[in-house]
C-alpha cells in the first residue's frame, strides 16, 4: 500500500515537472474528510493537458482507492476559462479566503498557479472572490466527470454490467448541467463505445455522451 502511494506521488511530481517546463499550470486540491473522494488533485497545463489523482471509491463496496494518475485533455473553452480566471484572480496572490468562521465546512481547497515568473497559491474554505468561486465550480465539476472516468475504466475491465448505471447517471447529470468538461474523459467513452463486449445500450449511451463532448 505504502509503495503504491509513493509511486503515485512520484508520478504526479514527474507530471507536474513536465507540465511546468511546458508553460503555465493551475492546480486545484481538495481535502474534505467524509466525502468521496476525500482527497483529489487536478493539475491543468496551458496546452490543455492535465492529470488527476483521487482516493475515491471505485464502487460502493470498495475501500478508498490508492491514488492513480489519470491523464486527460480539456476542451479549448474550459482550458481558456481556467487560465483567464486565474489571471482575473491575480494568480491567487493576496487574501482569498473570506476569513469567516461561521460558515459550513465545504472542504479545504487550494489553488496553485505556476509559470516562469509566478509561484503562488491560496487555501480557503469559502472565497468571496468571484474568479476563485468560478474556478472552484469548474474544478469540482471536472472532478465529478473524472471520477466517472475512473470508475468506467475500472468497470470496463472488471464489471462490465455496472457500466450502464454510471452512463445513465452521467446522461441525467449532463441534462441538469451538473457535469464538468466531458472532453476530459472522451478517450474512456470512445473505448466503451468501440467495445463489442459491452452491452449495446451502454455503447449507445457512450456515443451520445461523446457527441456532447464534441467527438
**What share of residues is helical?**
40-55%
* Beta-strand residue percentage: 15-25%
Biggest beta sheet summary? 6 strands, antiparallel
What radius of gyration results from the CA coordinates? 17 Å
- Low-pLDDT stretches: 1-16
Q: How far apart, in Å, are the first and last alpha carbons? A: 37 Å
Mean pLDDT across all amino acids: 88
Count up the helices: 6
Q: Count the beta strands.
A: 6
- Given helix and strand content, the structural type is alpha+beta
One letter per element, helices H and strands E, the order comes to HEEEEHEEHHHH
Instruction: Tell the overall outline.
Output: globular
Overall description:
This protein is of the alpha+beta class and 215 residues long. Residues 1-16 have low confidence and may be disordered. It has helices at residues 2-22, 76-88, 130-158, 163-175, 186-193, 200-212; strands at residues 25-31, 39-45, 49-54, 70-73, 108-114, 119-124. A six-stranded antiparallel beta sheet has the order 4-3-2-1-5-6, with helices on both faces.
Mind sketching the topology for me?
Layout lengths: L1 H21 L2 E7 L7 E7 L3 E6 L15 E4 L2 H13 L19 E7 L4 E6 L5 H29 L4 H13 L10 H8 L6 H13 L3
Antiparallel strand pairs: 1-2, 1-5, 2-3, 3-4, 5-6
Helix pairs in contact: 2-3, 3-4, 4-6, 5-6
Amino acid at each position: 500500500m505504502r509503495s503504491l502511494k509513493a509511486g503515485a506521488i512520484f508520478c504526479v511530481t514527474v507530471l507536474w515537472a513536465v507540465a511546468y517546463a511546458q508553460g503555465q499550470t493551475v492546480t486545484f486540491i481538495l481535502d474534505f474528510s467524509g466525502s468521496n473522494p476525500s482527497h483529489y488533485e487536478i493539475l491543468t497545463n496551458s496546452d490543455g493537458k492535465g492529470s488527476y489523482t483521487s482516493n475515491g471509491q471505485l464502487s460502493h463496496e470498495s475501500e478508498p482507492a490508492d491514488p492513480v494518475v489519470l491523464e486527460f485533455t480539456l476542451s479549448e473553452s474550459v482550458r481558456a476559462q481556467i487560465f483567464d480566471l486565474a489571471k482575473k484572480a491575480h494568480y491567487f496572490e493576496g487574501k482569498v479566503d473570506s476569513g469567516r468562521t461561521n460558515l459550513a465546512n465545504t472542504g479545504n481547497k487550494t489553488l496553485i498557479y505556476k509559470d516562469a515568473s509566478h509561484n503562488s497559491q491560496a487555501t480557503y474554505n469559502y472565497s468571496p472572490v468571484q474568479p476563485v468561486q468560478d474556478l472552484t465550480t469548474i474544478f469540482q465539476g471536472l472532478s465529478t466527470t473524472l471520477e466517472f472516468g475512473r470508475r468506467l475504466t475500472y468497470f470496463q475491465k472488471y464489471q462490465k454490467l455496472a457500466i450502464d448505471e454510471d452512463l445513465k447517471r452521467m446522461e441525467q447529470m449532463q441534462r441538469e448541467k451538473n457535469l464538468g468538461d466531458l472532453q476530459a474523459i472522451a478517450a474512456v467513452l470512445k473505448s466503451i463505445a468501440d467495445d463489442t463486449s459491452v452491452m449495446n445500450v451502454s455503447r449507445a449511451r457512450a456515443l451520445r455522451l461523446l457527441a456532447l463532448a464534441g467527438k
